[in-house]
Structure formats: structure tokens, C-alpha cells
Amino acid sequence: MNPVMDTWTVDRAMRVAEAELSAALPRRWAHSIGVARRADDLEQMLGEDTTLLVAAATLHDVGYAPRLATTGFHPLDGARFLRDEHGADERLVRLVANHSFALLEAEERGLREVLEAEFPLLEEPLLVDALVYCDMTTTPDGESTTARERVAEIVGRYGADSVVGRFIRRAAPEIFAAVERVDAALVAQPR
Q1: Contacts with 60 (C-beta within 8 Å, 6 or more apart), sequence order
Q2: Higher pLDDT, 178 or 5
């Protein structure tokens, strides 16, 4: 790994996310920091892609920032912001756009074709699963949790019949499977 490039990428992601989230949405900022911490713990599994994962983890919810919420769909709003205002790396933008099975939520919102056209799913399954793992095993306050507890918390917070509630219940089997794949990959790592 190139430590200078890694530090710059993660530092820049932190600065951008902090500027957009810390004051306006402090709980969302705490969650993002927690997700980034989880991502950093996956270095042995991901190697040089860890920097990309930590940056994506830090920025995955930036689209919730009030000034960025143009469509009301945070993965799309965040990815557009990173692409258009920051010229962010394509892999980073695609991870943010598609984090945690966002295509399913996009479908609920009538935005699936838009998301797929602008930001195709990254064809790097371990990296995609790793971001799901980090997001879905971190509470809104940035603490560790299980994926099942996290899904239940989201349904409870938004309501089962809301767009987010319907999406997360549809996505739950895929979320649990992604978390299990990452857990298996972590167990397989040499100690």
C-alpha cells in the first residue's frame, strides 16, 4: 500500500463527510465514523482496497446532508455530489451509490433505472459485501451490532410500511447473506 495516497484518500473522505454531516446530522456522522472504523478492521481481508472501503464507509451516508438531498434518495444524492463536486474516483462513487442493496430501495422509489444507468453496481463482490457488512453491523450511534438487530432497528425507526421499511425487509435476506460471506472470509484469514 502507498501510505501517502491512503492517508490522503481517507483524510479527504473524513473532511468531506464531516463538513456535510457533523453539524447538520450529528447522529448520522457518528454512524459514519463507526462504519469507517469497521471498514478499517477489514484490512487483512481486503489489502490495498481497504483505503477505498474506508473512504466509502465514511461517505456512504453523505447524501443525507440537507444541502445535498435533491432527490431524497441518499445513495444517489451522495454519489452525484461526490462525482460532480469532488470528481471522486469512480469505484468510490459506485460503492456509495449502491451501498447496502440500494438498488432495491431505488426500485421502491421509482429510481432504479436512474441509479443503474448513472452508477452501475461495482463488480467486486467482496468489496460490495464488505461495505454492507460495515454499514449493517453498526448502529446509528456508531456502535457494533448484529445485522439482524440493525435491520430491526431500521424497521422500527422508519415503520414497516414506509419506503425504507419495505426496502429493508426485502433486502434483509441479502444483507444477512453478505454479512455471513464477510464473516466467513474473515474466519478464513490467517492469524
Answers
A1: 32, 35, 75, 78, 95, 96, 99, 100, 131, 135
A2: 178
